[in-house]
């Protein structure tokens, strides 16, 4: 359960970073925030699908 929360928080922060990078027209920020969003967003979705939410014991 803790892993899903951490992945979700990183994903949300990368969304905020991506939006801010678009606003500032920062290409390097867009690339890194987009990559972070893709990777951690994928980890978040797959962790929820694999382990379920809430986690079953």
Describe this structure in words.
Helix content is 84%, strand content 0%. It has one domain. By secondary structure, the chain is an all-alpha fold. It has helices at residues 2-24, 27-51. It contains two helices and no strands.
Question: How is the secondary structure organized here?
Answer:
Layout: H1 2-24, H2 27-51
Helix pairs in contact: 1-2
End-to-end separation in angstroms reads: 11 Å
- Helical fraction equals over 70%
Shape: elongated
Number of domains: 1
Q: What is the makeup of the main sheet?
A: none
Strand content: under 5%
Overall pLDDT confidence: 90
Pfam families: DUF2759
Keywords: Membrane, Transmembrane, Transmembrane helix
Transmembrane segments: 27-49
Protein name: Membrane protein
Label this structure with key terms.
57 residues, Membrane protein, membrane, DUF2759, single chain, mainly alpha
Concise overview:
The protein is mostly helical and 57 residues long. It has helices at 2-24, 27-51. It has one domain.
């Amino acid at each position: 359960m803790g892993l899903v929360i951490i992945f979700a928080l990183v994903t949300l922060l990368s969304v905020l970073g991506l939006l801010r990078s678009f606003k500032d027209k920062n290409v390097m920020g867009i690339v890194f925030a987009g990559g972070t969003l893709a990777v951690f967003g994928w980890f978040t979705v797959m962790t929820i699908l694999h382990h379920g939410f809430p986690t079953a014991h």
